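Lab meeting, item 3. Inverse folding demo.
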């Protein structure tokens, strides 16, 4: 019997709603507590920098062990925990440490979920777009609502909304069927990037697009 993907649309909705609730408002929070532009830029740069390391590391661990659901629970719990610690901190060094840890747990969540979704779809991968669309809906719904809450009640609403939305997402992660097989060695998978010129062009284009973003 083919594993069910009924958990996926609501999770994509809640994950991207949570991201919309926090990520765009973090620079505003940093400015509110008196950080300089250079400090804000450094903290903002930690997320993509750490995702470069953490996403492949968590993905390789999930593929090697087959414990995708368990590891997703750990990632989500860590992301929520460190996000709620952020508003308590006032020292820049403390912020660097906690933002790094938050990024380490939060950044790999969606790559691992995408991997599970595509594996489950098997020969129906063209249906991925219909599932991913729920993420765009989640972002579009949450961003103006949380923006209004932050404007009227303070920036802390952004952190609370993030924790609540991603916490609800965890409930759907628990519904993921335990049917994920152990994947191949990550070393062998990564070597494909260096053996095929098309992948090198793709990586270069992605790198330039990421810098522009």
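The presenter then showed the designed sequence:
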């Amino acid at each position: 019997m083919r594993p069910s993907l009924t958990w996926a649309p609501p999770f994509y909705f809640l994950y991207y709603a949570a991201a919309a609730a926090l990520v765009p408002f973090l620079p505003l929070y940093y400015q509110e507590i008196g950080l300089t532009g250079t400090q804000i830029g450094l903290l903002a740069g930690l997320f993509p920098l750490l995702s470069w390391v953490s996403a492949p590391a968590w993905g390789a661990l999930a593929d090697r062990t087959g414990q995708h659901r368990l590891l997703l629970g750990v990632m989500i719990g860590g992301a929520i925990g460190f996000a709620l610690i952020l508003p308590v901190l006032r020292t820049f060094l403390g912020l660097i440490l906690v933002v790094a840890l938050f990024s380490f747990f939060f950044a790999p969540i969606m790559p691992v979920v995408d991997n599970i979704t595509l594996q489950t779809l098997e020969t129906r991968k063209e249906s991925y777009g219909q599932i991913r669309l729920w993420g765009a809906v989640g972002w579009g719904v949450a961003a103006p609502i949380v923006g209004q809450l932050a404007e009227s009640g303070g920036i802390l609403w952004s952190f609370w909304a993030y924790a609540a939305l991603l916490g609800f997402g965890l409930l759907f992660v628990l519904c993921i069927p335990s049917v994920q097989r152990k994947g191949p060695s990550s070393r062998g998978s990564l070597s494909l990037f260096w053996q095929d010129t098309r992948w090198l062009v793709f990586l270069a284009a992605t790198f330039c697009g990421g810098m522009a973003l």
